[in-house]
Amino acid sequence: MDEDEALARLIALAGTSAVGVPGQPDAALLRAVVEEASELGARRALARLGLADEAARDDVSDLRQLLGAWRDAKKSVWAAVVDWAVRCVLALVVVGLAVKLGLPGLLK
């Protein structure tokens, strides 16, 4: 019996008065229906994403490593940009001080 049939049988059983009070299925049956439906939905979602095969675990692991490397590279680039911006500002301050103190006149 595949998952679709199991879910269909559980739903049919929940609709009958064979269990518990007529018209009210018990909690265990409802839990079984929910579990089967959620597992079936998860399998379908993974299949649609192309992650239903055995290599999916390795693929997801590779994607996580790639994403981590991308984040590290992005962080490094921002650190380098800030570092260069600070250096440029400090160089401009030094040049401004040199001009203000008359250093170009001393060089002539």
Q: How would you characterize this protein structure?
A:
This protein has helices spanning 3-15, 27-49, 56-100, 103-107. It is an all-alpha fold. It has two domains: 1-52, no CATH class; 55-108. Helix 1 (3-15) packs antiparallel against helix 2 (27-49). The radius of gyration is 34 Å and the shape is rod-shaped. The model has no long low-confidence stretch (mean pLDDT 85).
Topology:
Layout: H1 3-15, H2 27-49, H3 56-100, H4 103-107
Helix pairs in contact: 1-2
The mean pLDDT is: 85
Termini separation comes to 97 Å
Number of helices: 4
How many extended strands?
Answer: 0
Order of helices and strands: HHHH
Task: Give the strand content.
Answer: under 5%
Number of domains: 2
Q: For the CA atoms, what is the radius of gyration?
A: 34 Å
Return residue spans where pLDDT drops below 50 for at least 5 consecutive residues.
none
Shape: rod-shaped
Produce a short descriptive summary:
It holds the Pfam family DUF6127. This protein is mainly α.
Keywords, separated by commas or semicolons:
0% strand; mainly alpha; 80% helix; single chain; membrane; 108 residues
